[in-house]
Amino acid sequence: MSYTVNISTNILRDQEQDIDYVVTPNAKEIFERIFLYNHGATKSFNLIGNYGTGKSTFLWALEKNLKNEKLFFTHLDSVKKVEGYEIIKLVGSNKPFSEALSNVLKLDNAESENIIYSLKKRRENAQKKNFGFLLLVDEFGKFLEQASKNNAIDELYLLQQISEWTNDERYESYFIITLHQNFNSYGKNLSNQDKLEWEKVKGRFVDLLFNEPVEQLIYFASKKLHEFSIPSDCLSRFEELNELIRNSGLANSKISNDLTTSLFPLDWLSTNMLVNSLQRYGQNERSLFSFLNDDSKYSVNRHKNNFYPVFKVFDYLTHTLPSEINSPENPHRPQWFSTFRALERAELLFDADYDLATEVIKTIGLVNIFSKAGGNFDKEFLKKYFVYTRGKDISKIIEKLISASLIRYYKHSKKINFLEGTDIDLEQELISISKEINPDFNVSDEIKNLVEYPIELVKKYSFETGTPRFFEFRLMKTYNPQKIEAPSGAIDGYINLIFQDVDLKELITISKEKPGNIFVVYQNSNEIKDELFKIKQFDLLIERHQEDKNALKLLSDERQFHLNNLKEIVVNQIFDKNLNTWIHQGVKKIIPNKHKLQNWLNEICYQIYSHTPVLKNELINKEYLSAPINGARKNLIRALLKNRAKANLGFDTSKFPPEKAIYISLLQQTGIHRIPDGLNHYDLVQPHEGSDLYDLWTESDKFLESSLSNKRNLNEFIDLLSKPPFKLKKGLVDFWLPIFLIARQEDFALFHIEGGYIPYLDEDVLDLIHRKPESFLIKSYDVSGLKVNLLESYKEMAQLEETVGKGTQTVFLTIFTNFLKFRKSLNNYALKTKKLSNKATNLRQAIIEAKDPEDALFNLFPAAFGYHSLSIKEDEKVLESYSKQVGEAITELKHAYDELLNNIENTIRKSFYCKNEDFPDYKEEIREKLAFIKPNSLGEKQRIFYKRLISPLDDRTSWLKSVADVTIGKSIEDLIDEEEPLLTATIEDFGESLIKVNDIHSYNKSSEQEKLLSIRFINEAGEAIEERLVVNKLESNSEFLGEIKNEIDILINGLEINKRKELLMELLSKNMNV
Question: What are the two backbone dihedrals, phi and then psi, of residue 971, each rounded to the nearest 5 degrees?
Fold first, then answer.
């Protein structure tokens, strides 16, 4: 950046020095950024650059320029309207920043307030003289290190105050510091809280990068070396040499004859090796100036009349920067050591030519470290380089080094380099391993495992339509036209890569029938196969030589080279018209580059997917919906079902959830959700013809119409939308399917493949459709002609009113749905009882078996009453008779359960001898008749029966059911006809027993000495003989009767239980004259 005999500049020490400063573009740009193009409020700057990049010299030149002592950049008088600048400067030290600055300001107290006040006064005085104000701090990193070490947050606060003070737009003031690394790096050992403080202070400064490019270092060198002239005998060689270097690609390509001439005795390669190495190991131009001013035997100044080639640079570096080269931190250390070992081994190989051999080795070592990757450094280059620079033929030396396995040419790096640490003969190994490889491998399979092709997004089409279209590269394993599939899912087209010989004429013909497929035929399949064979060879060798680390590195590098070659051939050269043939829809196409391919894919997409709607909503117009958008889909469906007739579907105007954004782009802006003609509320209707979704709606309607004669699976609808000319993304289909079904729900019937007709389209049903659309069918109906007459009869029967805007299909499906509702309203008893007329039984069976609305209303139901072909009859009397019979049958079915309850009611009234017929009255009678019963004295069933009888239930149906349920031991809704007599008998039996128990409990309650018992027998004649006995408790417990009872107990206790009962029953019946 600057050239001076002083290796390092100090802005305090050298302020009176006259430095030969060279202004670089980077320095000029930084000056202008600070003083000319600083349009922001920040006027505090941090110049960051490595050691030796010339930051201090820049500050020296900056001071000279601002004081108008010497013009290096631009005069600011006219631009800033100031006559000069007052500059306060200091250099970093181990003192605190506040102390160092207060010393410069000549303050006794280093408090922040005093420093800011002093700076303020100085700036005001400068302004009075029409001067600007500048505070320069070089090597500010030393102050930051001191602050970090002592955790001096106050120092940072002072820095922040000065920066904020400087940034006052009313004054022409600046604050510039220089650092060798990022601001935060000086505080990396601080606590997290303190790091935040450092980060806050850093934000007050604008960072300006001060590192100079390599080209600039070369430019500096040329300024110093321009005094050297090229000897006439070297001129032609020098020009040919630089042309050789330029063509090799080993060095920077930015080269001019004037520049290379001014660099002599350095050539263009040695120059690049020098500056790259000094930038890596030294201190940039500081080290470069040391080199230019060096006067040792390695100095360039000792070679004024001869070349200073690469090996001379090697010698200079090893003698001046040994610690940097040998440092463990040096990433190139292994290559340097390889070079040193090669030099040692060369002593045993060479005698007379040893010096020349070492020059060759040094050149190889340095070129491999600092030359550009991809440059060609082969035997021919190396030989010519030495011919031009040394006038020597090194052919024999190179061959000897190769024979001794010191060096070899590496294809992967395109460079000669050292071969050390392994004894494998690579060429022989490759020949031997070839026998183990089957040459008939499948090229496509191998490439698929090695090369990853990108998915090609058709950018223009995707931007214009909102639908992302992707083309996938597909490697054809075997060429089989019958197995070429159309694109599906997220992929919208295939670019089929064919690596075998095919009949191009046949392929062109086949391609006409495969619009979603592009074919690329590689004409260089043999070359591709050779590279794959090489990779297989190295794979086997790598497996074989796992223990030899040096061999592994060599083999891996060589394999990588051939892999890169393969990628170059099959990927990068895919646009080479001489190597590949592109075919689509019967036409050969020349695709020279990626841009042309994109344009072509765009045209193909518009041809194939001509009906794709324009919908620029990336939330839904993609293949897979995110979890939040899937939730938004459910919310939108819920809003459609609930608020279809409302503006904006009832969304809150103050909120903007994703479902609202989707609604606006998909339904509102497209005109689907609007107030249609003839209505005074919003609805989902067909969009206008100019709408982006008009074609999609029309095609959806066609699918609905196609289900007129046969049911269509909803999966067929999805397939239709997922194929050309629409091929909607699955995310959009997931929205469109439920929206269209909701919009047209009154124009079709929905079926489940197993569950049959679904009368309602609600949120749960739509969720099931989303999960398994293949399980659902739809069917539309043609309710016209004579069928309308029968339909009108059903309408009158169902008492349906005319609905504005609703057609016959709506009424038709509503009627069938009402029949299904009626079926669901019947309990099990009504659905199973045979105590019905034939017409009621037949209608019930027809409703149960009904699967299809059309078949049910026009065939099954009429046939249940003996009317066949009723839908094509016009006779009003026949229709009237049919309607009457349907009505009677429905009424009978409705009241079947009521009849059962009536029978139960009559049985209960009869059992308790009730005179009243009204429910509240006879229930009260029963309560009175059972008033003396003690529930705890009853058996379990009788007790429950009794509690149900006297329960406070005031609903007749519920009370009758509760009493009957406990009697039969199950719900009477599940009662079968055969169980009804048993129910009646049990109620009568329970009733009679409770009446008798009431009498017993009543008598026993009135007498303390006596107990009433009731016994009933049925004789052979079926006559009931009942005996009521009053037992006197005192007599029963008397001594006389007690002895008799004991004797009887003793006599019968020896008998088996059944014999005992038999004996007692016989004695009791005999005494009752049964």
Answer: -70, 135
For 646-767, list the strands marked E by DSSP: 673-674, 683-684, 712-713, 749-752, 756-758
Closest CA to 84 of 24, 132, 151: 132
CA distances from 1073 to 300, 482, 589, 755 (A): 154, 103, 121, 67
Give the chain's length. 1074
Rounded to an integer, the average pLDDT of 873-899 is: 82
Contact 1013, 1007 (CB under 8 A): no
C-alpha count within 13 angstroms, C-beta hemisphere, residue 840: 19
25-209: CATH superfamily? P-loop containing nucleotide triphosphate hydrolases (3.40.50.300)
Query: Which of the residue ranges 237-251, 634-648, 877-891 has the most confident prediction, judged by mean pLDDT?
Result: 634-648
Q: Please report which confidence band the pLDDT of residue 805 belongs to, taking 50, 70 and 90 as the band edges.
A: very low
Classify the phi-psi angles of 243: left when phi > 0, otherwise alpha if psi is within -120 to 50, otherwise beta: alpha
List the single range of 25-34, 284-293, 747-756 with lowest mean pLDDT.
284-293
| pLDDT at residue number 803 | 46
Encode pLDDT of 99-135 as tens digits.
Answer: 888 888 888 888 888 888 889 998 888 888 888 888 9
Burial (CB count <10 Å: 0-12, 13-18, 19+), residue 215: middle
Residue 615, pLDDT above cutoff 50 = yes
The predicted pLDDT at position 289 comes to 64
Closest CA to 740 of 709, 718, 764: 718
Please, what is the end-to-end C-alpha distance for the chain in angstroms?
Answer: 141
What are the pLDDT digits (tens) for 300-346? 777 777 888 999 989 988 988 888 888 877 888 888 888 998 999 89
Strand ranges (DSSP E) for 825-962?
none
Which residues, in sequence order, are bridge partners of residue 1025?
1017
Residue type, position 550, single letter: N
Residues near 445 by beta carbon (within 8 Å), at least 6 away in sequence: 475, 477
Question: Across the strands, what pairs with 410?
Answer: 415
Sign of dihedral through CA atoms 787, 793, 796, 799?
A: negative
Q: Largest Cα–Cα distance in the chain?
A: 166
Q: What is the DSSP letter of 784?
A: -
* Secondary structure class of 619 (helix, strand, coil): coil
Cα–Cα dist 725/708, whole Å: 24
Domains of the chain by residue range: 25-209, 214-420, 436-608, 627-779, 787-897, 914-1006, 1031-1071
Q: Percent of the chain scored above 90 by pLDDT?
A: 36
CA dist., res. 649 & res. 640, Å (int): 7
Determine the Cα angle at 28 with ends 25 and 30, to 5°: 110
Query: Does residue 653 sit in helix, strand or coil?
Result: coil
> Does the pLDDT at position 281 exceed 80?
no
CA dihedral sign, ordered 827, 829, 835, 838? positive
Torsion angle (degrees, nearest 10) of CA 18, 24, 25, 29: -40
Which residue in the block uniquely carries the two structure tokens 């005069």?
75
E strands present in 153-264: 173-179, 206-209
Burial zone of 861 (CB within 10 Å; 0-12 exposed, 13-18 middle, 19+ buried): buried
DSSP 448: H
Q: Which residue has the tokens 């009498």?
A: 999
Inter-residue contact 277 to 317 (CB < 8 Å)? yes
Tens digit of pLDDT for each residue in 826-856? Answer: 999 989 999 999 998 888 888 888 888 877 7
Which residues pair with residue 415 across a beta bridge?
377, 410
